[in-house]
């Protein structure tokens, strides 16, 4: 190949990479939602890792209250391999699918009243690479790992803030549920270490929130028998997958991908949870990370649906108890409209544990109760 042809191809490749890397777009309309969106949505990619070969896709929604001062959250759904879009439409975001018989058209989206974006800015991040619309440019890339994911998310957050410097001073929290309970304490530690060791300006890290978190394999899984003994389980109706299928119909529609600015050809079939995403689960227990970051004084909210058998609340109580912190506020009910919504306990390491009465493995079973709990905690009020 002559040198001028090689240089031409190299230039074209470079332009394509620049166009795709670290791109973002403001989205004002979405297929399936009637009229303009009643909130500010940005989607895009941030390149991380060697040569920025991992392109991490995100949905960013500004707080509906005061985005300049309200907390900034990054939300990670579990799996590993579950898209953060699942959290956005099924758990704590401002959109939900209208459940109606599917007729082959784009599923309808409606507004919610319980979104955490009422009081917080949220980045819903698809990670590890391969999850949701995130992809790698390198087909021979190493298998992602828990510890590697923590470094990638840390890098993502810093690069995202470099592109959105107006949020550097906002209180920052790492949040998520299920399997992300293994990774989030490590991410908090990475960000904290980065603040002290290498990186300016500092991220205004304040703490983390975990919902029904996987923490320690032996502890969590062995507690299932203990929990199931004599416990009434959630109904079959609550376990139905039909609502989940709506998100797959929606995200695999070509008009939706165009609206979200998904890079064409980077993803085949979108799956809400792709359990084929490879991940080296090299964090066996996140308890040591909880210990390390507790010493540094970060706040934390650990919440559990009390009907979750995947990660039973009894195992969560056990590992919190193993931290050996003194109790500041004893076990008590927390209330909504004079009704018991769950139970809570507060520890000396600024950790709050709370159950959601009738809740399952994710926030979707009791979204309003979970939203009220979060709003009280994030504002520093007693639950």
Provide structural commentary.
It contains 11 helices and 14 strands. It is of the alpha/beta class. The protein has a single domain, classed as 3-Layer(aba) Sandwich (Rossmann fold). Strands 1, 2, 3, 4, 7, 8, 9, 10, 11, 12, 13 and 14 form a 12-stranded mixed beta sheet that branches. Strand 13 and strand 14 form a beta hairpin. Helix 3 packs across helix 4 (about 180-195), helix 4 runs parallel beside helix 9 and helix 5 (about 215-230) packs across helix 10 (about 315-320). It is globular, with a radius of gyration of 21 Å.
Mean pLDDT: 87
Helix and strand string, N-terminal first?
HEEEEHEEEEHEHEHHHHHEHEEEH
How many β-strand stretches?
14
Looking at the structure, the CATH topology is Rossmann fold
What is the percent of helical residues? 25-40%
- Largest beta-sheet characterization: 12 strands, mixed
- Return the domain count: 1
Approximate shape: globular
Q: Indicate the structural class.
A: alpha/beta
Question: Beta-strand level of the residues, as a percent range?
Answer: 15-25%
Uncertain stretches: 1-21, 233-240
> Can you identify the CATH class?
Alpha Beta
User: Could you say what the CATH architecture is?
Assistant: 3-Layer(aba) Sandwich
Q: Supply Rg.
A: 21 Å
Determine the oligomeric state from the structure. single chain
Termini distance?
69 Å
How large is the count of helical segments? Answer: 11
CATH H-tier superfamily: Alpha/Beta hydrolase fold, catalytic domain
